[in-house]
Structure prediction request, 541 residues.
Amino acid sequence: MIPSLRVLLLPLLFLLCSRAGAQPDVPRERRSIEGGREYWMTFQRNFRGYRDVSNGKFSHLVLDSSLRLSLSITSAVMARGYAEIAGSGHRVPFTVPAGEMITIPIDPAALVESSDTVERRAVHLVADAPVIVYGTCHRYQSTETFIAYPVEDLGNSYRASCFGPLDRDLTAQVALVGTEDGTRVTITPTAGIARTVPTGLAITFPRSRLSASDTVRRGAPQRKPGRNKRRRLDSLVTAVLSRVDSSTTQEVMMTFRQIDTVTVSRPASLPYTIVLNRGDVYQLIARSAGSYTAIHGGKDSADLTGTSILSDRPIAVFSGHICAYVPDPSAKACNLLVEQLPPADAWGRTFYVADLARHYPSLVRVTASRDSTHIHRNGTLVATLGAGRFYQQRLDSAEILTADFPVLVAQIGYGSRGLWGDGVDTLGDPMMLLVAPVEQYASAYRFMTPEAGSWHSYITVLAPTASLGSLRLDGISIDTGLFRRFSDGLYSRAAVAVDRGAHFITGSSPFGLYLYGFGYGADNYDAYGNAGGYMIPDSGK
Prediction:
């Protein structure tokens, strides 16, 4: 039920102090259009910090300089502000014109790569008027986006939504951001947690003399797992250079390894408590068996989905995967997965889940917050879940998911090899977005597509069938012929192509929205996805 509107008083004074004041109460309907004035965010680990470079004769590995972090900002009115990294001098001022979008770079030093270690790397954004904020984390062939929640929409109780492991260093991750000093957080992980501190790349040069040969051997490239069959899947990568002289060939084996110093492991299902101060980030990375055979054999349960996070003050929580194969290792094209999580009191019971544009198949994960949660798919009982457990299914067509207690629903796009089965990656890598429940629908959204890169971007609109004629995208009616009905006939869905930049969509009745895109050209083999907006219920905070 949508609460009655309350008087909205917006301060006009720009918050230049280091501690921004709390935003006045804003009805949730308006927050879906306008956003907020203060945000706390983080950027999680994205694939590996090195990539292959080839010159036609041999391959070698270099540190990956392709990492780009950015925030995209839009507003209904002109807004000024800044984004800064806690604990550093990095600050980027911005001005966004009314109704437009800007993108500002964030220092790559904000990327959090450690696990079970508190670091002051949170990104803090403050504005003098309400803004909507998206984050983008890009590395070569691995891009993902998230929509950020303003501070008044943060909560104290969360459960993570992630995915299973790919390799010893490519596994599930969750990150927590403190917004107030002295915040106590109790975490109950669903998988073991390793305490790691990345220390860069190790390079060794063992030598051996071989029999005479004039063969120049090429080492196995390592970009992202699955780009072609020559690329290896473990985190030890070798490049072989051969030198020929009159009598022997001396082969130099160079071994590159991204080092994670593991000092402590947190066991699964055992609660533990940490303390976060304002601007702190604490990341959990699941401890994988480190064996590709074990992972493929289904013996590695390093999936943090359902992890419980309880705090005594509001925090921001992000979760996903460092680089995931979806739906399984047969789809050999991995990608970063990330979304900011809504608190558990913002979950819902009824979800219309649409098939995506261009017949892009996906997985749906439904996570429960309470024991004995019954999940129905198009009216048929398909699962009974305990607290923190999840139900997963392949989605080939639109479906209606319902539950008797609130649940969190994530939709994860397939890696395209899982779609075509022929090794041709023509559509995009995996991506993750959160599906809003009907209880959270709004009658208007302001959203934007990535400014950088080459993307075919789409929105999926889920609207009451009776209201389709009222939908307007940037003031223009949406063709009702694009819509197809769900099985109950009450709601319909459509995938609509959108151009680069900021957009505004309205309707006469509340509707759902999410946003995603597929890369082409220089951004081929890539994809992104995120919720198109949010309507966190007012909780009396």
About this structure: Residues 238 and 255 are 5 Å apart (CA to CA).
